[in-house]
Amino acid sequence: MTWLALCDHDERRFSVRGLGSDKQQEACIADDPRSLLTRGSIVFETRLSADGRPQLLFGHNTTFPWQRSLTFQAIPGGGIAMVQVQGKSIAHAAIQRKDAGRTDVVRITYSWDSCAKWGRLTLEQPEDTTLTSVYVENPHPLSLEDVRHLMLGTGGSTFAPDMIFAALSDRIEPTGPMPSLLPGTPLATPWGYKPAVTLQRGDTVLTRGAGVVPVLHSISRTVPARGSYRPVRLRAPYFGLQQDIVVSPDQRLLIDGPEVEYLFGQEAVLVPARHLVNGFAAMDEPCGPTISYTQLLLPSHETLIAAGTALESLYIGRIRRNGQHMHASLLQQLDRNSLPEHGKPAHHVLKWHDAIHLARQRAA
Predict the structure, then answer these.
(1) Which residues contact 59 (CB under 8 A, 6 or more apart)?
(2) Can you give the pTM of this predicted structure?
(3) Nearest to residue 67, comparing CAs of 46, 83, 81, 51?
(4) Pair 149, 70: CB distance under 8 Å
């Protein structure tokens, strides 16, 4: 299962053998324009304007030798509509944000299995833990020729200025909780620091405030290294780090200090790494087309210690109560009885405007 294509406003890549760390020895699909992707996912991120104006965001349309198109449009109210046409047959779905407001970045995942006559359109907001999904009835397979045009921007394709990136996979991509640490991130354990990827169920880690706790599960995923997946380097000695670490933009750090108590009335708060980027303490990390992340699931959402700083462990909320969301997530292969229930996050999570304000205060 492989990421086959990636595009943004700076570059476009397509390979039937896969990209970056996903590259395979042999082609994942026959390199023939008529070859069909009967199963796969298109993942993209885009900005949706607060006024909810309709706009064609991403798509491909051709009339030779018959009408074929796949388009994604922003619709009034802050939602996304998908329309797929093959000849006289049409498959479509629409999804609305529950909390449309300011200009937000959303992640859309369209997955299909045409042999099973099943498809799913999912909308997520990278800084939120909620998601909304709708099913797509009888989606059509996509030809290699059409997806190549779509991803490379040729032959009647659209990639709007509001688009951030788009990627194509030959698998049903998961949605929901995602890992956010590089596999080699040093995490504190009773026996010293260990690389995150080496810690598995049954191991123990040191946490801030809760002492030694067991690891319930470790999850990993390879993703396109763009948008809300583009890595961020946190530099030592800032944030109490003993060495630099690289995390995803959604990895939240535990920040404390007198300014936190003064501004928010909290002893400590969680801040996404994306809001700490300032060019010296935290900066965007150059990388290839894909990147692999890992993360640990702990019983009560305890705070990990990574190279001397406090980081959030994987937060899954009460996903075990929602069979649909759990089945669509990275947790689908796990025993539901082995999953914890996380109520509210262990610490107050700052909204984007508060996080940016705190970062500026600290920089000053």
Answers:
(1) 69, 70, 71, 72, 73, 150, 157, 158
(2) 0.92
(3) 83
(4) no
